[in-house]
Write a structure and sequence with these properties.
mainly alpha; 2 domains; two-stranded antiparallel ribbon; 9 strands; 9% strand; binds zinc ion
Length: 355
Amino acid sequence: MATTDPLTLGQRLVAVLEGGQRTATYKLAVMVALLDLAVESVPDDPEAAVSIDLDDLAHRVMDLYWRQLRPLDGEVLRQSNDGRGVVFAAVSRLRAAVASSNLRETPIETAAIRAPRVYETEKLVVKRNLVRYPLHLLQRVGSTHERFLYDDAWLGTDSLRLIDQHDNAIELLPGVCFTLARLAPLVKPAFQLAWVDDVRRMNRALFDDEPDLAHHLFGADRVALQKPGFVLGDAFGRECFYCASHLTSGQHVDHVLPWSRVGLDGLSNLVLACSLCNTNKSDLLPDPAHIRRALGRGRDRLDALAESINWPSQFDRVVAAAHGLYATQPDTTPIWRATKRVDPLSRVDIVWPAL
Ligand SMILES: [Zn+2]
């Protein structure tokens, strides 16, 4: 039986979090990646079962570690008690394969374009490892084993034949994808906090002071966003996307769909904003009209601009995440329309154009 009651599903996710001291952060990475993928995969029928492609999942997990394995004060943080692990080693090899340190500050999609063979090789390593261990173990908490997210009977192997037989996917049970997407705003921060705690414990020897680990592990990378910022200014003018004020040097690159919600750094999700709008909007969901305008800049244009700086565009992912985010929010969700104008979400706002 599927668990589509949000409270019951939420309790089981919390049980995953609290299931004893972790020796590595894999389970947390898989769960955060599944939450993000659920938001981008919300079906029209809330009760539908939803397939999650294992290459997509492997990519998301690599993306999380890609950012986390960049050095902090010259040190690469451990993600396991002994500092070892197949997935971390795979992502580290990809980091080593992109020669310049500039590239290591760009999104993983850029590395995938620059070093495609290494990327594909390492993604396969990661996928097989996820299927063999964390995906297999995620639903086993202590002595209990309940399949509340997906059928894991065939997992625990790294056989490519078996993966192929299951269409290279795990299937979220009926109703689970929709419920995960609903819970994501509550549950994802809890998983991130646990992750920060784990990394702090695993790296205790490294730091005398208390570095801002939460920002290092999960914050938006403002420095890396300078390059897309210049391109956006050249293409669409140096004015605030939201209030149209002219931007001088104090421009901010804003994530239209908040970074904390969906983690999309692609050009399709980026605009220039004045500091007032940027600060005031913060992590609020914007008026869907803003997203329509951001996407209305045109897929071809955004793709071409992104390509010109070797940056991901992520047009389809922005569309999918917008659909999932708004479809699963309650009517009372605060919606940011403009500076100091926040109203409850209204269903009539949510109209997506055919794209
Ligand atoms: Zn503004």
